[in-house]
Specification:
Radius of gyration: 25 Å
Helix content: 40-55%
Strand content: 5-15%
Structural class: alpha/beta
Shape: elongated
Largest sheet: 8 strands, mixed
Number of helices: 11
Length: 371
């Protein structure tokens, strides 16, 4: 991690007006995910540490952040807005933590009021809300607004608090509320607010303050199919992650697709190409492994997606891991079938279970290891 200094002037406990000035070198930030933490201190908090840290996750938005008081955390080999926010909050010792985007769509003038309300002690979190009375959105078409409504309802379904705008990326919370949830956070995708609310061991006291979501000033929207998929993964993880890891569920589903792919390719080789059974099974297994790797790379590990030469290296390691898993599968099935006189299908299922757990556990730390 490279740490430099750049930033934005943000309305905060010090009452400094918002704005953006200065420059960041293109080679330093371009095409990199950055978690930026701006720490504002009031005169009363100088001896007791910083009062407020404003975490500003950035991706190619250097034009919006330029101020000498901002501490820049340059993340190498890691991506995702939620994980950037977590790292930014952990990099500060401030008593209060705010999160806002770097594209100037959030109303920074609300920060002092948020801080004053939290200091009063009645609430654990203040959310800048587009969907309470007095709030709103500027410049959205019906398609974008409709998608936001659907995502909002899905998010509300898994939360333990009544929040009108769980998709908001603009909020402030107490340090103890963050620390209480941090070890349970999924860190998936872009919706860190939902992650915190659903991960907190206690029901947080939440107040929503209205604001108008402004049109984007610089940069471009990150909303795409991958963002939608990661949001669905986050919701699934919050719903069933305490029972079984959502990645393992996806990994197993991809494996099930691989079984059908193996059978289809083997049939094709035997009945259309008229190959021998051994050659047909070898071809089918190889194609299934490549297909499973590609699907897992896009779906199961979308936040760790391998590209370029890393894709090829990952494929090789995945094939090696799955080959060992296949050997374990056969070995366990053989032992159970011959040594315990169990039914063939029970022995087969046991072998599949052992192979699946091995493939998932080892490929997670070898093929898709965190940087």
């Amino acid at each position: 991690m490279n740490i430099g200094t750049t930033g934005t002037s943000i309305a905060s406990a010090t009452g400094v007006p918002a704005g953006a000035a200065g420059a960041v070198s293109k080679s330093e930030v371009s095409q990199s995910e950055v978690s930026q933490s701006s720490t504002a201190t009031s005169s009363a908090a100088i001896t007791g540490g910083p009062t407020l840290a404003v975490v500003v996750p950035c991706l190619n938005e250097r034009d919006n952040v330029a101020d000498a008081r901002v501490r820049l955390l340059h993340r190498i080999g890691r991506r995702g807005l939620s994980s950037a926010c977590i790292e930014g909050a952990q990099a500060s010792t401030a008593h209060y933590i705010a999160v806002m985007d770097a594209d100037l769509q959030h109303d920074e003038s609300l920060l002092p009021k948020m801080l004053a309300t939290l200091k009063a002690g009645e609430y654990d979190m203040i959310i800048g809300s587009r969907y309470v009375e007095g709030g709103g959105v500027e410049g959205w078409d019906e398609k974008r607004a409709g998608g936001s409504r659907i995502a909002t309802r899905l998010g509300q379904a898994i939360l333990r608090v009544d929040v009108a705008d769980p998709m908001s990326g603009f909020f402030m919370l107490r340090r103890d509320a963050f620390e209480g949830a941090v070890r349970r956070l999924s860190g998936m995708g872009f919706k860190i607010l939902i992650d915190i609310l659903a991960s907190s061991p206690r029901k947080l006291r939440v107040l929503e303050m209205p604001y108008h979501f402004r049109p984007r000033q610089f940069g471009e929207s990150k909303l795409d199919a991958q963002v939608v998929w990661e949001y669905l993964m986050l919701l699934a993880d919050k719903a069933i992650g305490h029972i079984v890891p959502v990645r393992f569920v996806l990994f197993s589903l991809v494996g099930g697709i691989g079984v059908f792919a193996t059978l289809f390719v083997a049939w094709l080789c035997l009945h259309v190409l008229h190959t021998s059974f051994d050659l047909a099974q070898t071809i089918a297994t190889g194609i299934a492994m490549v297909g499973n790797f590609a699907l897992n790379n896009v779906l199961t590990y979308s936040d760790r997606r391998l590209k370029g030469w890393r894709f090829l290296r990952g494929l090789i390691s995945f094939v090696l891991v799955c080959s060992l898993g296949a050997a374990g599968n056969v070995g366990v099935a053989h032992f159970i079938f011959h040594e315990t006189s169990s039914s063939w299908w029970l022995a087969s299922l046991a072998g599949i279970a052992v192979g699946s757990v091995w493939n998932y556990a080892v490929s997670s730390v070898v093929t898709w290891k965190r940087s």
